[in-house]
Queue: 2 jobs
Job 1
Amino acid sequence: MRPGLPCRIAPHRSGRRNRPSTNPVEKQKGIDVPSFLRIQDIADILIMTLLLYQLYSWFRRTRAMQVLLGLGVVTVIYFVTRFLGLYMTSWVLQELGTVLIVLIIVVFQAEIRQALYRFSLMRHFFGSRQETQQLSRFQEIVDTLFSLAKKRTGAIVVFQRSESLVDQMLNGVSLNCEITPQILEAIFYDGAPLHDGAALIREGKIALASCHLPLSQNPELPQFYGTRHRAALGLSERTDAVVAVVSEERGEVSLAVGGELHRLSSAGELVALLEELILPEKEKPRESLRQRFFSNLLPKTAVLLIVIAFWALITSRQGAIATVTAPVRLHGIPQGLVLLRSSPEEVEVQVKSFSSLTPTPAKLDIAADIDLSEVREGAAIVRIRNSDFKLPSGMVVGSVNPSSIRIVTEKKVRKTVPVRVALRGRLPRGLGAYRVVASPDTVEVEGPSGQISKLEAVATEEVDASKLVKGKEYQKNLLPPYKNVTILRDEPLVLKLVSRRAVHQ
Ligand SMILES: Nc1ncnc2c1ncn2[C@@H]1O[C@H](COP(=O)(O)OP(=O)(O)OP(=O)(O)O)[C@@H](O)[C@H]1O
């Protein structure tokens, strides 16, 4: 929630290329909803719905969800107050939103890290490999859990799946030993040093024991469940781990998955569940796209409606119209033509922004980029189209004044003309028999046929004749005779004194 306060276009500042006109902003009366829905808008809504739903499913049963809901309510109130023009209230809410976001980041670091981890595609490459779980061990583990239940010995066994549990399982003792009923019983034996806390099964081994898990804050959990069950549930809310828990008090076995606790009546039921949940993805019957689409319809619809409401609110804000002065940039003139004149050099363009997310028109580098590739020789009027202005999404051109430009083009020709050495003053005494010559003494020029036909010579930069010395060479550039005439030579010419007699010979 960080859109800025209602924007106004800055008054004219000299030196800017796009200058708002003297009456820069005219606020439209009433609400201005775009009359059509573009493909980009639908994509916009769908992408946000997908992201928001994903966010919802990650945080669904965590403490962070309550805070996110609170933040959502503040955001809605902010938009309403802004829409109604309550500037002070909306400003306070905006600042509050910033503080809340910082607080959320600080308080829910672990949840955010886990959510980002889930989001990261890299985990598919670097995540632990659940394929190595040894399915044959399930029966042994489950039998041990039910045997512990019979003896009223409490236990928590965590089965890691694809997500890392490093941030969630704290203070564990590293074992990395084989899974056997004897070791499992020894770990959870009441009075044994590691019996408090949870054991972690990872890659077919007992990786850790006596781990501390995050507790669930779920208020709907019945009172008779104590911290052991809350710990199992807490981990399953934050990660994709499957957690089996044995109750010391009631002698029952339960399984926590995805923030839900299931009581199990038989060992067979638990084995089947574990196999289904921990089996490698490829061996599982895949959910069809249709099934995935239609599952959890209620929250999905709610998220979609929220996104549509926000989208409408953002895009239907009072449309701002601004008139800016944009330079005319001409390009694509055909090879055989030269542009002699064009006018005007700037046009007034009325830009309309639909969304509060778009920048103010005055801050944009707007120019009319006009393509001249279709023009023919002579005078022509070229219409300026709205597509000649490159504007960000959410902005359209209202009108352009004038709506066309006048241009004059002429055929481009080439000609070879003599070089004239531009001398200032006289040659030093004693050099009367000499004259200054250029090498080469002709040069090729290109330009509009009218100017080229009149052109008889091209002059060099001026040379002070009194300073010339016999036998020395001087480098000088040629001066373009007209604006549209190009001299087809990049290097400077060489000037030197040559005896008149030698020249005549
Ligand atoms: N955060 C935790 N992480 C892992 N294990 C925990 C955690 N908190 C408590 N435990 C385990 O739970 C035991 C206490 O269980 P408690 O009686 O409070 O829960 P319960 O859900 O009622 O379980 P039970 O039905 O077995 O009595 C502790 O001795 C410890 O082994």
Note: The pocket of adenosine-5'-triphosphate is lined by residues 154, 156, 196-198, 212-213, 215, 225-229, 231, 247-250 (CB under 6 Å).
Job 2
Amino acid sequence: TACSSKYVLSQVHPMWQGPLAVPGGDRQSPIDIVVRMSVFDSELKPLVNDYDPDTCQQIWNNGYSFLVEYDDTTDKSTLKGGPLQDKFRLCQFHFHWGESNAWGSEHTVDRRLFPAELHLVHWNADKYSLFEEAVMEDNGLAVIGVFLKVGKRHEGLQKLVDALPTIRHKDSVVEFNRFDPACLLPSNTDDYWTYHGSLTTPPLTESVTWIIMKQHIEVSHDQLAVFRSLLFTSAEEDVQKSMVNNFRVQQPLCGRTVRSSFS
Ligand SMILES: NS(=O)(=O)c1c(F)c(F)c(S(=O)(=O)CCO)c(N[C@H]2CCc3ccccc32)c1F
Ligand SMILES: [Zn+2]
């Protein structure tokens, strides 16, 4: 199976041409979370996030997603608790979405797809001094995943949506301040699934403790439509491509256990 071979050829992905061999490859992400196979772990604590909106720096289109970047040179925006032993610093958040509301998320729950998924990327500042170091280490990263559903308008998201037309093309960046990412978290952050996996974009390193929220957030159809108005391509390119379906195909579980913080 794909798990046994030393190299896992990840499927061709819109972001990079041709299959990409990933060394090791038995802890890849994303995955389908099979609820009845997840194991309740009473040792799992509530998440403790302490984000400082003043550390928000910029929002940019990197040709794969749009990301909001935070100043991670101090311990101002941190995550601890949950399955984590150390204190992690928020470095950025980004989203994955589809061309239609029928799909777009990277993870699924009992094969259920969501139109989009938010990822808040943190790195272990107790053990490492730079994100780039932590990316290579087993316990280096922690990514919170939140599913988005189409429903009522998300007031907190609107400030971000209003900035997207200014970064339509790849490599465009605009200053973005005072955005509190906590407003994008669901009201209940005590119920989550957690497993060990990887980044879902290069370098695909198996350094991520994934923390997937059980409760989704709601955004309006129009807000999601603005995500789809972004472009993969830079202003110079003559063929413009809509930024949609920027998710990786699902990877084999390879015997991993997904734990739940709730029974
Ligand atoms: N789904 S995910 O959480 O695995 C994930 C992404 F899906 C994604 F798109 C990005 S990125 O920065 O937009 C593109 C870089 O590969 C990152 N960025 C990470 C990976 C590499 C890197 C380097 C510096 C800062 C952030 C990141 C990411 F962690
Ligand atoms: Zn992501």
Note: DSSP finds three helices and 17 strands in the chain.
